[in-house]
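F.,

This is the one I mentioned.
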């Protein structure tokens, strides 16, 4: 099925990657211990698997899951709900919860994720933050780090209600932002403007490092359950973790003013949310190893990649810069053909809601759009970058990548 020469090259890569893989194992061990301790401290039992329907009053499992998330993120409170459609939805709820007319939202990591364009009002929409007279400003990154000087100047000028930091690169060409950089910039923000809320889009970054942003001063963090923390088990939802007063605002925006976290049926999701979190340190490790392997082997084959195999990893995303439309499409088609679900479907570029350019998406996943499962996508624009992420096991990840490479070389 896979060419002998390619298998030999894969083996060579793995030998050279041994130390890097060992480091990923070490982080996974650390995060596994963190999760297990939190389960123990919260006395998780099968009682927490029972569910509620309807209004969802007194959902013991749901409330306990939120305590578990609070403890994993070492913060005051959490909102972990299947009523969030996606990461974008949770970010949207968070922004609308925290901002009021005439307030300012400032992004300091450049333009946010494409699906937020209409939420913020960068692209016109009658339901955007802009339509409620909420201002948006942006400071771009400078050489893949924060523009500390500009940020300080802006904060000294007039009050900014919310600063958003998106750690993972989204569909941009910049590097993703490490926890150390997040810590450094939060120190600056809190020194100059202590009342500014720092909100982090943490998508794809959970459990890649030993610390989460709430451990280095972030007020609120948001992420998706069909990415890292769901481990392919949780079939929808998102989380918001952070300061208690802010989580309260988010819960009233998601649910109903006056009802906050008291409502929201778990609809049989509790066991899957707990199992997903439990498996996540390992699944994130498998996905990371797949990304590192991809980087190494494609570099050896002469492709440009970002990050490099020996760069520090911040998220699970691997870029391959094809500079060639056909190659991008072929590679994605190769990933799809090695997927467990819909392997006979041939993905083609299409106009996805929420995105500016046409996008090609390979995602033969058990959960629709789940990108902790091996998936690969990219906007059809220069320089034709594939954004590959996920793999529930390293073995399936490796097979997928080798199949996609075979398609390329045809
Ligand atoms: C995936 C992602 C989101 C949210 O995407 P959804 O598909 O709506 O869950 C937001 N920001 C970043 C950086 C992401 O990677």
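My design for it:
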């Amino acid at each position: 099925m896979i060419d002998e020469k390619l298998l030999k090259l894969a083996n060579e890569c793995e030998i050279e990657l041994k130390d890097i893989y060992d480091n990923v194992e070490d982080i996974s061990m650390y995060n596994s211990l963190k999760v297990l301790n939190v389960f123990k401290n919260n006395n998780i039992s099968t009682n927490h698997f029972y569910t509620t329907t309807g209004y969802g009053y007194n959902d013991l499992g749901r409330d306990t899951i939120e305590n578990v998330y609070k403890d994993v993120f070492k913060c005051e409170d959490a909102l972990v709900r299947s009523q969030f459609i996606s990461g974008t939805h949770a970010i949207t709820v968070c922004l609308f919860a925290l901002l009021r007319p005439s307030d300012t939202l400032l992004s300091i990591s450049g333009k946010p994720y494409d699906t937020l364009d209409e939420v913020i009002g960068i692209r016109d929409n009658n339901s955007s933050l802009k339509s409620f007279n909420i201002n948006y400003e942006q400071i771009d990154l400078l050489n893949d780090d924060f523009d500390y000087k500009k940020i300080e100047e802006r904060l000294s000028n007039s009050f900014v209600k919310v600063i958003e930091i998106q750690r993972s690169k989204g569909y941009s060409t910049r590097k993703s932002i490490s926890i150390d950089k997040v810590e450094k910039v939060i120190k600056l923000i809190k020194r100059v403007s202590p009342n500014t809320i720092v909100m982090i889009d943490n998508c794809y970054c959970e459990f890649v490092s030993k610390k989460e942003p709430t451990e280095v001063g972030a007020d609120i963090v948001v992420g998706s359950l069909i990415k890292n923390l769901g481990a392919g088990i949780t079939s929808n939802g998102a989380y918001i973790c952070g300061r208690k007063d802010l989580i309260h605002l988010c819960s009233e925006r998601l649910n109903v003013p006056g009802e906050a976290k008291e409502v929201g049926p778990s609809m049989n999701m509790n066991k899957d949310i707990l199992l997903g979190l439990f498996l996540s340190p390992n699944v994130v490790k498998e996905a990371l190893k797949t990304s590192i392997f991809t980087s190494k082997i494609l570099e050896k084959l002469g492709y440009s990649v970002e990050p490099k195999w020996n760069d520090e990893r911040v998220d699970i995303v691997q870029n391959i810069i094809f500079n060639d439309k056909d190659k991008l499409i072929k590679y994605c088609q190769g990933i799809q053909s090695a997927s467990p679900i819909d392997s006979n479907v041939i993905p083609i570029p299409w106009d996805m809601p929420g995105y500016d350019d046409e996008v090609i998406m390979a995602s033969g996943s058990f959960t629709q759009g789940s990108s902790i499962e091996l998936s690969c996508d990219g906007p059809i624009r220069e320089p034709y970058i594939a954004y590959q992420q996920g793999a529930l096991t390293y073995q399936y990840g490796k097979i997928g990548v080798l199949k996609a490479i075979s398609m390329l070389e045809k």
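The longest helix spans residues 270-300.

Talk soon.
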